[in-house]
Design brief:
Keywords: Membrane, Transmembrane, Transmembrane helix
Strand content: under 5%
Distance between the termini: 51 Å
Structural class: mainly alpha
Transmembrane segments: 12-29
Low-confidence stretches: none
Radius of gyration: 15 Å
Length: 33
């Protein structure tokens, strides 16, 4: 049970990091004149 929770937490961290990177790159490309 504890192992399952840890894997879910890790996948959640990966998803949040990917979303953060996509948002940063989106604003970076839109701000470029």
């Amino acid at each position: 049970m504890k192992q399952m929770r840890r894997s879910i937490y890790r996948s959640g961290m990966l998803v949040s990091c990917a979303v953060l990177l996509s948002i940063i790159s989106y604003f970076y490309y839109t701000a470029d004149p």
